[in-house]
Amino acid sequence: MVRNKSPTNEDDKSGATSKKIARERVDYISQVPRAILHHILLFLPFEYWIILGMVSKQWQDLLSETPVVILDENEIVSKMKRQVRCVLHEDQFRSDELDEFKRRFAEFVNHVLFNHSSCLIKYARLSLQYEPRIIYASNVKNWVHFFMTRDIEMLELSFSSTPNVYCELEGLEVRRTTTAQTFELPHQPFQPKFTSFILNFCKLKASRFGSFMNLKALYLTDVDILDCSIGKFVSKCPVLEDLYLERCSVTDKFFVCKKDLKIKHLNLLNCLTEKWDVYMIDISVPQLTNLLIIGKYLSSSTIRNTTNLVDCSIDIHGRFSDMEQGNFLTLMMINLRNCKTLALSSWCVQILPTLDIELSQQLHGSFTKLTSLRVAVGYVKQELPGIVMLLQSCPCLESLMLEINHKAKDIFFLRLVNDTIESFEPEAFLFEEDNYLENQTQDIFCLQNRLKVLKIYGFMGRNKEIHLIEFLLRKALVLENLVIYHDLPDECETRESPPSVRELHKRRMLQALLDLPRASSVVQVYEEKIEFGDD
């Protein structure tokens, strides 16, 4: 039997206190220090800030004092739609109704900026879907001017959330942007004071801007840089340390500069020129510590004076290659040989053996500071010569990580013959796969003296995987730890494979590794399950 809970003396006292507060109309919120109220606002959606003005007298003035301004059209208009849907029970809206929502959004932005005309802003974000014919199009330049001329520490401007359109042209992926529809930043000599600037989905002429004297971090995504070079671009930001460019369109020689750049962290992700998704790099970055390059193909690239480089990652993932790509990659790698950690994609591993003999001799043993190497492999035939070359190039290598990419395949090599593009197989891949590794044991110094940790990610127990691991175990004389991060096949997760069967499968894989011959008497084998985080 469940008894009804009778009110206690404490409940009576609590209720009496609440009623007393209500009668006396005591505003305890207004007695809270304003710094604490500002901190509370940071955890609330921006559109609720105005509503709070009706709760307490002190909240009414906080809107013009808050150090954070977030104006996101998608969020605000979506809430307007939900409110109308609840009243009218409608799921679809007419175009004139959507225009009304956008008009109200523009009024809201104008009101907020007016209230912040004389206050300090630490962080501001303006995000909208720009179109030349949009109802508030004439206001956008005024909004940008407001943010670019205020004392803001961190600024984020985004003028679209629609991905750019890409198309295939003669084997290369080319971006076709609707430049007439893209918002272009006003051509004014702005001299903002913010330290971090995030700019998305627009175009700009860098030569028209003033100086960004305090800017340390610049993040550009889907931005068309219509002029200038990286040298002149960075010269306007004398203390810039972090430069992040993703899917940006640049001029043909944007990344060519003879002067030293002071950048410490450089990320170039799938950038391209107006016509092609390859671009030349010729820069000097003596203070560079982190480099990340992601793309589909390489052009002639030289990154000089990287004496302080710590971490380097080159992730090229094209489907084709020619005989020049191996030379381009090697020239880049030789100039990056001071790095301590290096990560390469399967494409890089496959095209590396196609380099010229002279470059091969320069690459051999050149990574004298490299202690950690991470390589994505699909265990295809064309990767084997590249893996051997990398091991020969890293005499001080202590940790080797092989990340299994199940989608990786042999890339196609193309050449031009009599104005016709035809496929061919380079001489570097004319070998018998079964015995190749056994015949390539010379000059791999790291296996004999340095390699202590071997990690395999995505292990599924296939013959090619075990064959490569067996080779490394038999040649690594001082290996201490072999860690296997396994990735069980999908069929092991079905109803036909209960937990006991899956556990048996893991035991067999581990036992197969334990049975492999090992040159090191102290090596320990560990098995782990790959954990996938929530998206």
Kindly state the number of beta strands: 25
Beta-strand proportion:
25-35%
Shape: globular
Helical content (DSSP H or I, runs of 4+): 25-40%
The rounded Rg comes to: 30 Å
Strand order of the largest sheet: 1-2-3-6-7-8-11-14-16-18-19-20-23-24-25
What is the terminal separation in angstroms?
Answer: 46 Å
Which runs of at least 5 residues are low in confidence (pLDDT < 50)? 1-5, 165-172, 174-180, 490-496
Task: Give the helix/strand class.
Answer: alpha/beta
Largest sheet: 15 strands, parallel
Rounded average pLDDT: 82
How many helices in DSSP terms?
15
How would you describe what is shown here?
This protein has 535 residues and is of the alpha/beta class. The chain has a domain at 159-309. Helix content is 30%, strand content 25%. The chain has 15 helices and 25 strands. It has helices at 9-24, 34-41, 47-52, 57-62, 73-88, 95-115, 137-148, 230-235, 323-335, 346-351, 357-363, 384-393, 445-449, 463-475, 499-514; strands spanning 68-72, 121-127, 152-158, 165-169, 172-176, 196-204, 217-225, 242-246, 249-250, 255-260, 265-269, 272-273, 281-284, 290-295, 301-304, 311-316, 320-321, 341-344, 372-377, 399-404, 412-417, 420-424, 453-459, 481-486, 524-529. The strands form five sheets. A 15-stranded parallel β-sheet has the order 1-2-3-6-7-8-11-14-16-18-19-20-23-24-25. α7 links the parallel β2 and β3. α9 (323-335) runs parallel beside α11. The model is unreliable at 1-5, 165-172, 174-180 and 490-496 (pLDDT under 50).
